[in-house]
Amino acid sequence: MFSPSTPSASTTTAAGSLLPFSSPEATRALNSTIALHLARLGAFESLSSLNEQTHHTVQDAVPDHLLASLKELHRVLAHLKEGVCTSALEWIDQKRRSSEQSSLEDWAGHAKSDPDPDSDLEFELRKEEYIQLLLSNSSDDEDVAERQPLPSPSPSSASHDKCQQASIHLALRYGGHHFRRLMTPARRSHIEALLTAPIYMPFERLLSSPYALIFAPYAPTKSTLPSDGSTPTCAMFTAAFLSTLDLPKDSPLIVVTDIGGSGAMAKIHKVRAVMKEQKTSWSAIGELPVEVPLPINRRYHSIFACPVSKEQSTPSNPPMLLTCGHVIARESLVRLARGTPTLKCPYCPVISHASAAVRVHF
């Protein structure tokens, strides 16, 4: 909890304007940001303590329905970290059914741009279950949800070979059923590798096979599994789950900390001091006069604005790439063509064909 210091009434007025987040509104906003951050992390006990210390002023930042959803998120993540994907797959199925129902109710004759946004996530989960089945040694293990973390490969024996063959057949049956539905040109080679890998079993041979990169993460090690949700599958599920709550995949507190701590705040403070010495008003500039360093993962694409019309692009007026490499909005392209099949680029002497322009996706 952040609370501005108020040593005395005489100093509060003089220093109040100098302290960051000194106003009640700013303090509430900061505490609410911290509360949402704690809820996203799954630190629900800390969130409860913060709520009590702030006299329940941050409760609106994390309403009951949002808190319940975030608890559900971390329940599923806990299962994923144990190698159990059933809860995540059930969530995908439930979301898909809800989406299909909403599409039927709101159908207006428009084609979907992305019929299954969770296809990549489901493929990763199905792949995880397939590998767990392939590497398991129990032929009775039909229910993936009841499996425990994989044991280290044991020495070969007759009974072990029978169990291994049963596991291979069970995995191939599972993969043949689910991977057929999830097959795309981009996934073809990956699925082929998964279904071909069993010929290199047992696990020791698999680790020296052409498919070793796929199965290397499942090799037994002395270190424990990561428990911070940093695995790719956990990260994908978290992003998909948070999108249904209209929350970004990264906490705002983490974003501003990454940007500020990477040197942005120091650079801005230095520029601000120079501008103050030169008696230049910050608001008069309207933008930063220097480039601010940002981490690579915090460099976001801006919304495209047409350099000709100065208007932001929309789905009906998307950015179009000319043959010369310059990008303008579609409406600007039509105006420049003036009913002819060709147009001159407004920024270079190249003559482009309007039909050759390609839509750009940012």
UniProtKB/TrEMBL annotation:
<dbReference type="Pfam" id="PF13445">
    <property type="entry name" value="zf-RING_UBOX"/>
</dbReference>
<dbReference type="GO" id="GO:0061630">
    <property type="term" value="F:ubiquitin protein ligase activity"/>
</dbReference>
<feature type="zinc finger region" description="RING-Gid-type">
    <location>
        <begin position="306"/>
        <end position="348"/>
    </location>
</feature>
<keyword id="KW-0963">Cytoplasm</keyword>
<dbReference type="Pfam" id="PF10607">
    <property type="entry name" value="CTLH"/>
</dbReference>
<dbReference type="GO" id="GO:0005634">
    <property type="term" value="C:nucleus"/>
</dbReference>
<protein>
    <recommendedName>
        <fullName>GID complex catalytic subunit 2</fullName>
    </recommendedName>
</protein>
<dbReference type="InterPro" id="IPR006595">
    <property type="entry name" value="CTLH_C"/>
</dbReference>
<dbReference type="InterPro" id="IPR045098">
    <property type="entry name" value="Fyv10_fam"/>
</dbReference>
<keyword id="KW-0479">Metal-binding</keyword>
<feature type="region of interest" description="Disordered">
    <location>
        <begin position="138"/>
        <end position="162"/>
    </location>
</feature>
<keyword id="KW-0862">Zinc</keyword>
<dbReference type="GO" id="GO:0034657">
    <property type="term" value="C:GID complex"/>
</dbReference>
<feature type="domain" description="RING-Gid-type">
    <location>
        <begin position="306"/>
        <end position="348"/>
    </location>
</feature>
<feature type="domain" description="CTLH">
    <location>
        <begin position="69"/>
        <end position="141"/>
    </location>
</feature>
<dbReference type="GO" id="GO:0043161">
    <property type="term" value="P:proteasome-mediated ubiquitin-dependent protein catabolic process"/>
</dbReference>
<comment type="similarity">
    <text>Belongs to the RMD5/GID2 family.</text>
</comment>
<dbReference type="InterPro" id="IPR037683">
    <property type="entry name" value="Rmd5_dRing"/>
</dbReference>
<dbReference type="GO" id="GO:0005737">
    <property type="term" value="C:cytoplasm"/>
</dbReference>
<dbReference type="InterPro" id="IPR024964">
    <property type="entry name" value="CTLH/CRA"/>
</dbReference>
<dbReference type="InterPro" id="IPR027370">
    <property type="entry name" value="Znf-RING_euk"/>
</dbReference>
<keyword id="KW-0863">Zinc-finger</keyword>
<dbReference type="GO" id="GO:0008270">
    <property type="term" value="F:zinc ion binding"/>
</dbReference>
<dbReference type="InterPro" id="IPR044063">
    <property type="entry name" value="ZF_RING_GID"/>
</dbReference>
